[in-house]
Design brief:
- This protein has about 300 residues and is α+β, with helices and mostly antiparallel strands.
- It is built from seven helices and ten strands.
Amino acid sequence: MAPRANWKGFLRLSLVTCPVALYPATSESEKVSFNQLNRKTGHRIKYAKVDADTGEEVANEDIVKGYKVDDDTFVEVTREELENVALESTRTIEIDEFVDRSEIDPRYLIRPYYLCPDGKVGHDAFAVIRETIREMNKVAIGRVVLTNREHIIALEAMDKGLIGTLLRYPYEVRSAAEYFDDIQDVKVTKDMLDLAKHIVNQKSGHFEPDKFEDQYETALIDLINRKRAGKPIVAKARPRGENVVDLMDALRKSIGNEKAANASRPARKPRKSASGQKEMLMPIAGKKPAKEAAAKKPAAKPQRKSA
């Protein structure tokens, strides 16, 4: 199935315009997710939208957005009124300026999207904008409206397309001074710094995402599969941090530990992308196939006893 675009409109650089579509570049769908259940029955929990004063359930068509002025006063805003906020960025990403990538503070980065030509027309104009960004080694800054909010978007050339990263506004970024001011000013000696640099050199490598493994996700899948198979669940000991008494001694020991680890560490092969929840759908040895079990399952759901 072809991916679904989050937004469709136009990309414009001065008088050069082309139709484009914006697609999410990341996905959370492969991660393990849980439902909330009633412990006594095993049934899923359902949430209802109710009037806070009357306690009566409210139909979706009767729900409107409201801005809270004070405890008892709200300004109601309808969907139609929100759609009538006619920002040009609702349908067009206008490139306002070009900046160096190094000038973008990482705190302002939100999430990446893929930007592609929409349809069979406009590929020439898209290629001109893309190659200009690539050749100038710049990031194009524009604006786009997603989920009824206008966002700043940074566009960079990537292969045959563009990658657009949503950026935060200054009021969304907290000042580092609130957190860093209480950090003590400590003078680091040259000997300590040299030892620490040696450790960095031992651990230096290249950014290869295929080597990364979501160990927590893997542990969740193992936990669920063990419970499905009726195997006992044994709590693992939690890692504990140790108090560092002699920092120089800790640095020297770290170097020795890294040497030993590097000598015994086998070459890592790139991992295939995790199949996530698909792994949990595999039949368990000794269990009946799902269809056969469903056919023999009684219609009435028995009450589940509390553990």
